[in-house]
């Protein structure tokens, strides 16, 4: 086969003094809970065992002049991570690309760091991939991924740390997302530049519901945080709020993407009450007691209905009302009060009309009109109200 290099001088490579180090898989850490009732605790790894780079092939013996010989072509690529030690003792990971080189003299292929490979050889291998990625050409990407003669790294990064999945997500191509995910691409990989966005953040921010749906189906974490601490849903809502009403097409896309994310993030459940609060601002959370008796959970403030939060912050307690069993007119200031029977409180209490769920009032009035019997009320149910609200509320976004 003809050499891919235009000049012999570009095809000669030197061995690095020491092999590059690669990091072992990261210690698994629980992913951020992203649902009001998590569908199951998820554990994320930086890479699954089958996505980690294969052990480097042993380089062939060096010749006397310490070179490899002439390159035939690149037959594979991978992204490796090397440790970076900070002055404060912290350890982070730096990424680098290596290419599997096929040599003209027939020796075993060897992994070589990207900077040591001639630019035209790299271009010959990389240009079709990035051209297809940036055009969301699913047919070409699929063909390159399935080419047995030149293995592809589906997590290959451009200079900004973006992968083909980032481009597919931004262009809304679920046809590209599927083969990339099936090839083992990391659906939660954040870009190194531009705010640490994952592909799901990109799909959300560009209002691409089809890509968001495909990424979620491939296992993307809807609770992943970008560099500013935003989930994909929060980013979609933020962009939507900043988009003028006249830009109808963009708003429709953002709303549709947000709907896809809401379906993945939220599980509707009735709340008995908020027990505690902690944190400030965006870090504010509430300990929620569920109506169905599920385990109490800390829920981010942005995922709790605003009226529920407002009542808690104002010191208004929530109880679970079973029924309205009586009513009376208030002498001073007018208005009505309703006698509320509670699920978790022994004594019924009189509550102002504004504190009572309208549906319970309607049910009470319907029973009265039909002459139906009312639930029994303890004899001690009289006097002032408890200060608890008779709402049976649902946590909402």
UniProtKB/TrEMBL annotation:
Keyword line: ANK repeat, Repeat
GO terms assigned for molecular function: ubiquitin-protein transferase activity
Keyword Repeat assigned: yes
Extent of the ANK repeats: 160-192, 195-227
SMART domains linked to this entry: ANK, CHROMO
One record GO biological process: protein K6-linked ubiquitination
Region (Disordered): 1-69, 365-397
Limits of the Chromo domain: 319-368
Biased composition regions of type Low complexity, renumbered to the chain: 1-38
Transmembrane helix among keywords: no
Record-linked PANTHER family: ANKYRIN REPEAT DOMAIN-CONTAINING PROTEIN 39-RELATED, BRCA1-ASSOCIATED RING DOMAIN PROTEIN 1
Name of the protein this chain belongs to: Chromo domain-containing protein
Organism this protein belongs to: Ensete ventricosum (Abyssinian banana)
Lineage, uppermost ranks: Eukaryota, Viridiplantae, Streptophyta, Embryophyta, Tracheophyta
């Amino acid at each position: 086969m003809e050499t891919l290099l235009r000049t012999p001088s570009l095809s000669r490579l030197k061995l690095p003094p020491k092999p590059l180090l690669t990091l072992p898989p990261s210690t698994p850490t629980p992913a951020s809970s992203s649902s009001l009732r998590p569908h199951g605790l998820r554990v994320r790894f930086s890479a699954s065992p089958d996505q980690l780079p294969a052990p480097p092939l042993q380089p062939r013996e060096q010749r006397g002049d310490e070179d490899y010989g002439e390159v035939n072509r690149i037959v594979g690529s991978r992204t490796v991570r090397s440790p970076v030690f900070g002055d404060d003792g912290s350890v982070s990971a730096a990424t680098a690309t290596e290419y599997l080189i096929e040599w003209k003299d027939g020796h075993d292929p060897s992994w070589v760091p990207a900077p040591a490979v001639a630019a035209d050889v790299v271009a010959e291998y990389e240009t079709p991939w990035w051209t297809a990625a940036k055009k969301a050409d699913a047919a070409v990407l699929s063909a390159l991924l399935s080419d047995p003669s030149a293995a592809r790294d589906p997590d290959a990064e451009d200079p900004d740390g973006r992968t083909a999945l980032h481009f597919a997500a931004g262009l809304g191509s679920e046809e590209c997302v599927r083969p990339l995910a099936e090839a083992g691409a990391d659906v939660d990989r954040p870009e190194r530049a531009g705010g640490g966005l994952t592909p799901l953040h990109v799909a959300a921010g560009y209002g691409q519901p089809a890509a968001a749906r495909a990424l979620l189906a491939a296992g993307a974490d809807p609770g992943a945080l970008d560099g500013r601490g935003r989930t994909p849903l929060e980013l979609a809502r933020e962009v939507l709020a900043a988009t003028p009403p006249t830009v109808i097409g963009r708003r429709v896309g953002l709303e549709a993407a947000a709907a896809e994310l809401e379906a993945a993030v939220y599980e509707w459940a009735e709340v008995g009450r908020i027990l505690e609060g902690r944190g400030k601002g965006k870090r504010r959370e509430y300990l929620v007691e569920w109506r169905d008796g599920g385990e109490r959970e800390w829920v981010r403030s942005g995922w709790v209905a605003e009226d529920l939060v407002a009542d808690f912050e104002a010191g208004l307690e929530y109880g679970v009302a079973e029924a309205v069993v009586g009513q009376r007119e208030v002498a001073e200031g007018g208005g009505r009060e309703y006698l509320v029977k509670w699920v978790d409180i022994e004594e019924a209490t009189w509550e102002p009309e504004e504190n009572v769920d309208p549906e319970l009032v309607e049910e009470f009035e319907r029973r009265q009109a039909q002459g139906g019997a009312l639930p029994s009320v303890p004899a001690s149910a009289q006097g002032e109200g408890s200060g608890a609200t008779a709402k049976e509320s649902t946590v909402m976004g």
